[in-house]
């Protein structure tokens, strides 16, 4: 804010700590909303890696309920250990994936920066100028709200398990609980989910009067829930009862002794939105997002509640694991989404 100016509740500001910064502009009652993100490759397909990187950047806007993006920049680091042939094949595919995802989100990449580095890095910047009614500040959860998650957990586990297929020492630790085919299917499902934009969920946040949201990425569902809880104006806490997880990933997490998937600390990449919704709207949100009018692949689950508390978040001792079947798997009846009964993960 300009020196000496008082915060204006009509034009809220948001700084470091949440998904995007919201900066009131000097004129016109508008706000600048901006975010940046980058990371290292985690899938083998460079085109899909570009799409995932773009979806991950845009997700920070979508977590604010923003559905439009005015401009994107792409940040790309090409590895100095790549041959010239590898650079010429891989780099254009990553750029195309990023640009295609941006186009799907109704925006365009107008510039950026490319450097040579020891590692491949891919990411970007997303910028939009908004009126106040176009974004939802992540601070208005109330007691009785319901927590909804729009993508299954387990992306890091799936990606790592796929890498372990070629690492006998690691594979031998998990091959009693999962088959190679199940790992391949989980990897494809994770890749598809990571490349899916959270734009539909962002639009429905307005339709169903969302009170706050964040996206689930590097700190896992527990870390991001705790961060969102700290932002709340009311004295509330979040309690998570259900964990929708890509099928078999909970078993891999337990067998490997890594990740902390059932504890909510396993990192996700380009994960779903965690949204605080009024109790009477949550089930309708979950039903609506699955409608065919939004295309294939959108899902949502009720995962917890908002109760009176001191702005913390926790997962109950024995959360119910909802095994989310990969789309390529043989369909079997899934357990109803709205039960809070605790159970061990099915194997």
From TrEMBL:
Which class of enzymes does this protein belong to?
Answer: transferase
Q: State the GO CC annotations.
A: cytoplasm
Q: Which InterPro entries match?
A: PurM-like_C_dom, PurM-like_C_sf, PurM-like_N, PurM-like_N_sf, SPS/SelD
> Where in the numbering of this chain does the PurM-like C-terminal domain appear?
143-315
Annotated EC: 2.7.9.3
Q: Which domain of life is it from?
A: Eukaryota
GO biological process terms held by the UniProt record: selenocysteine biosynthetic process
Note whether Metal-binding occurs among the keywords: yes
User: Is Iron-sulfur a UniProt keyword of this protein?
Assistant: no
The residues covered by the PurM-like N-terminal domain are: 19-125
Reaction(s) catalysed (UniProt annotation): hydrogenselenide + ATP + H2O = selenophosphate + AMP + phosphate + 2 H(+)
Q: Which cofactor does it need?
A: Mg(2+)
Record key words, sorted: Acetylation, ATP-binding, Kinase, Magnesium, Metal-binding, Nucleotide-binding, Phosphoprotein, Selenium, Selenocysteine, Transferase, Ubl conjugation
Question: Single GO molecular-function term?
Answer: metal ion binding
Summarize subunit and interaction data from the UniProt record for this chain: Homodimer.
Function, as annotated: Synthesizes selenophosphate from selenide and ATP.
Name the family.
Belongs to the selenophosphate synthase 1 family. Class I subfamily.
Annotated NCBIfam families: selD
This one is known as Selenide, water dikinase 2
